[in-house]
Amino acid sequence: MNYLNEFLSSFLSLALEMAPYLLLGFFIAGVLHVWIPRHLYLPKIAKPNLKSVFWATLFGIPLPICSCAVIPTAIALRREGASKGASVSFLISTPATGIDSILATYSLLGLPFAILRPVAAIFTSILGGVFTNRFTDNDVEKNSTDEMTSKKEEKKLEGFWKKILETIRFGFLEMLPNLAKWLFIGIALGALVNVFIPDDFFSFLRPYPFLCMLLVLLFSMPMYTCAFGSIPLALSLIDKGITPGAALVLLMAGPATSLASMLVVGRAFGKKTLFAYLASIAFGALFFGFIVDTFFMNEFLETIRFSNFIAEHDSSNIWFNILSLGILLLFLGIPKFKSIIHKKEKSKMARCFNVNGMNCNHCKMSVEKAVGALSGVTSVEANLSQKCVFVEGTFEESLLQKAISDAGFEFLGEKKS
To answer: What is the mean pLDDT of residues 343-360?
Structure first.
C-alpha cells in the first residue's frame, strides 16, 4: 500500500504540474489549425532544396501530433507535392516537440531545456531533410501543390465564433484525445521510476556521459514516447542519476522514432530515406547531449524541479492546477459521453473493411476523410478497436483500397462475417 500511495502521489504531482501548460498548448494548436490556411505553406515545401526543408521544419515544430499520427500526415503532404526531404523534416520535427511540450518542458525541466529542445529539433530536422535530399532520389510527385490545392477546396469557416468553436474542437476534442493515452503512460512511467528506482541508481554512469547517452539512445529509439509524455520520464531518470545530456537524448529520440514509424517510413519512403531519418536523429541527439554534458551540466541541473509539487506550491497555485487538470479531463470525457448518448446501431447495409495502421483519433479521421471523399459513399465510420472501417453506399472496392493506401494505411480487404 505504501508503494501504491507513493505512485499515486507522484503521478498526481506530475499531472498537476503539467496541466496548465497543456491547456494553453492545445488551445494554441487549435489556433494554428483554424487561423492559418494550408495554401500559405504547401507551396513552400514542394521543391527538393534547403528552403523547403527549412519551411517544413518550422511548420512541424509547433504541432502537437504524435509519431503514429504524423506518419499519414507526412505521407499526405508528400502526395500533395511536398519534397521527400521536406516530408522527412516534418516527420522529425513534429513529434519531437510542439507548443504544448515546450511549455510542459519548462514547467518540469526549466528554461534551458525548454529553449534547447526546439533548437535541437530544428537542427536535427533540417539535417534529416538535407541527408534525404542528398542521398535519395529527389523525385517530386507529378501533381504540383497548386494543382492539388485547386482540386481540394479548403474548408472555410465564416464568422468569428465559428472559428473559435472549431479552434476548441480541434485542440481539445481532436488533438487532446489523440495524445492523452501516451501522456498518461509517460506520467505513469515517470511515477514508477520515482517510486521503484533508488536515488542515484544511475549515478555510476555520470562519469561516462557518452556511454550514458548511447544507452538511452538505444533504449528510446524503438520505444514510443510522445513529446510531453517523455518529460516526466526524463525528470525521473535525471533524479535517479542519468546526465542532463542523456535526458535530452530521450526527449529527442523517444518522440521522433518508434518501431512502428521505422517500418512505415521504410515502406513508404524507401530504405535510404529510413537510414537518413534514423541517422540524423541519432547524430543530432548525441551532438546536443554532448554539448549539454560537456559545457552546461550544472546549469541544466540547477533549473530542474525535483521537489514535490504539492509540497512547494501555495494553495492558490494548487487550485489553479487542479482546475486546469479538471478542464482537460472534462474535454477527454465529452467524446465518450456523446458516444454513449448518441450511440446508433450500425446499418445492416454497411460493409466492414479491415485497415491496418490506425492507432489514434487522428488516424481514424484521416481514413474517414479519405473514404468519405469517394463518389457513391454515403456514410463512413472507422473503428480503432476493431481496426476496420464501416462504409455505406455504392462504390468500387479497388477505389476504396487506393484511397486508404494513399492516406498511408494498409487495406486488408472486406471483413468476413
So the answer is: 73
